[in-house]
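Interim report to the steering committee. The following record documents the input for Queuosine 5'-phosphate N-glycosylase/hydrolase (199 residues).
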Amino acid sequence: MAEQRAQVLSEAGAVLNAKFGGSFYHCVENCGKSAVKLLATIVENFESYHDFGDYKGKKVSFLKRAQILVADVYGCLRNKNEIGSFYDIGELTMFADYRVPQALAYLGALHYSSKLMKSLRSNPILPSGCPLEMELRGFSIKACDDIVEAAKRLRTEMDTHLRTITAIDVDMFLWAYRREHAVEIEKNVPYHRIRSINY
């Protein structure tokens, strides 16, 4: 994996030098304050961010690392530099990996069958891109989207002035929750193991 990670860095440097004047800042400038456009720029120009799969004959995309990159830019620049104040940040999904599904299952937002629990507890390394991996990632995105929609309904019902909750907020909460309650969660819900640069 270390060699693949080194190739990712090499590719990033080469693409930035060839297309963006040697600076990722130019990618951000060119997106017109759109998280979706920045995401598209990353995916179109940096092959290592191609987090796609084929699920039952359909192309599916997760784009975990690309979306985290966009979210990190937003988090760093939104109150400091106008170009990072993305008007469409809510269009991003949660960052589908292996820890957030574990937290969702622990909290009851995802249900793992007894067969799946037994399989995951036997600690196999799943093949990257296998149907089970894509299902776990896809259902996690759906669960987080459902949480966002429920939060929006509650916000409307409460007539509150709280800001809108995004899938990024849900993801970050779940990731932090899993870290804070790691021992208890590990005892109860195994995570799916994958060797991949997409996480």
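The longest strand covers residues 52-55. The committee is asked to note this result when reviewing the revised timeline.
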